[in-house]
Fold each of these.
Amino acid sequence: MSKLQIAVRDIADEMRERTDRGEVATYIPELANVDRKHFGIAVVGVDGEVVVGGDHDMPFSIQSVSKVFTLTLALGKAGDRLWQRVGREPSGSPFNSVVQLEYERGKPRNPFINAGAIAVTDLILSGHQPREALGEILRFIRFLADDQSIGIDEKVAASEQRTGFRNAALANYMKSFGVLDNPVDLTLGVYFHQCAIAMSCLQLARAGRYLAMSGRNPATGHPVINAERARRINAVMLTCGHYDGSGEFAYRVGLPGKSGVGGGILCVAPGKASIAVWSPGLDAAGNSHLGRVALEALTRRMGWSIFGA
Ligand code: GLU
């Protein structure tokens, strides 16, 4: 067994036994039904080595992890003009905070808090019907993961659509400042559906490989994005990928990562591997508790922190 295989096996065994599992998100009613007992991990190395553990092939709601892929798409469409609409500073505020938007006149702090992600989705939507925009997002993710079976959990999308009052407030507020170009309900419809994409750890780790490989798609060797852009997306993931828990994640794990309230985290060890973990119980900042614990253990054992072994 390789060092990585042993580490993943040990971590999956330990996570199965842990009783501190955090709390599942309940503000999206459909997510409240997910069993906290799940834990999955998948590591896809840049050399092609694939190592998995626990519930690695069980699909879960990727939620905000989708924001990595929409940011990549939107940068492809708008280039650096995107940064006129959305900042790239950590927010230090909860993922759905409203107050910061008022201070900053409708310009979201970064593309990974909800307001910023809604503004990014609005950019992808411009010039398209919502169905086309969603199709583009889904096709991109399927292409990255090299897996046509990835789809949307319509029940989760409908559940969030029914209860997404906070996101509607954020979107309407941005609209009042002219930050959104499209009708608020259409932008939100695409946003709720992108968050409801269901993927397994293995699919997610495969989809994230381009960020570990300087923007290249390992299946073809062709660039998805250029190396500079991959580096910069990783930088935003490191500083903003875990909301007001981003500092703690950098301190403990030391890798760029993006979490979602479904309990998934996509994590990038540049030049080494793309990693996905899933455990539905969240900490107070809305990030997967055991997901973070597992990644901390993995980076420590493999010496993968970007800040030094
Ligand atoms: N769809 C969720 C929301 O907008 C995403 C939040 C998250 O995953 O952190 O509330």
Amino acid sequence: MFKHFSLVCDMFEKLQSKWKVNGIQLFLILSTFAIGGSLTGMAGRKLIGLMPVEHPIAWFFSYIIIMTLIWPLMVLFVSIPFGQFIFFRGYLLRMASHLRRSNSPIENPHAVNTSEQPYSGTPAAPDHHHHHPILLAVFASGTGSNAEKIMDHFAEHPRIKVALVVSNKPAAGVLEKAAARNVPTLIIEKENFFRGDSYIPFLKEKGIDFIVLAGFLWKIPAALITAFPSHIVNIHPALLPKYGGKGMYGQFVHEAVIIAGEQESGITIHFVDEHYDHGGTIFQATCQLEPGDTAASLAERIHELEHAHYPAIIEQTVLKQVVKH
Ligand code: GAR
């Protein structure tokens, strides 16, 4: 008895981690499946009764076809009062893309690193026909000149798309830049980011595969890093490991570099882990300091370097890290 109970708990836990939902949401999802399934049965029997099918085999196939067509509509319908419409819409789209995939014999030629999926249940499909681009979310807190270059770089890209711009500042310039390019935006708030679900279910529903930080000033919570392992990159306006860490952003970095009398500075593009400016370095480029440099003049040269390299390095990294099945 106890064994069966623990097996059921185990199954619920697996489903929770597969769908990245909490216990309440799992309960609502399973209820939607149950009620949607019963309604499908009832509606199916009614409809088949209206059809002039006599032969048992024809009846059987008609019944299966009717049920298959009604079921998605029924669960979507039931999911609305249960508040699970977004989950089920994503679920059905994933099912559709799995079906398409199983009909397609060719594997993704660019696939690498199959062990590092950001989360299970990502809407996924082979993208050799580029029907399902790899989706990026760009996180930025300020003007967003880097985000702008990134959006423009991928605007016509056959495999990668900026699908979302995320900001913690409702007045950030990056939001206008995103809107001008018809890129959806999300303004996040502190409580949910650090102590709630960190917007992971939302990012998952949007099918985000990879996160790019471009002047994003909040620390990334551990849950988000776990949900996107080796799938988050950041750019830092100095040569890490020097001049990194908490409070080291933007002009503070450049001031520190100048005060220290450095001969050169530069940019570091790196994977994000749970410490500020810490994960594995992907790329660095340097520039010389000039006599009379101010934080502003240095920032300008650093920005030039960032704009010249960040989009291309993101492209390489994403193609290496992300596999879409
Ligand atoms: C960039 O220089 C970026 O390297 C820096 O913020 C600036 C954002 O500029 N990031 C950090 O300092 C992170 N520690 P932008 O809004 O014009 O892209």
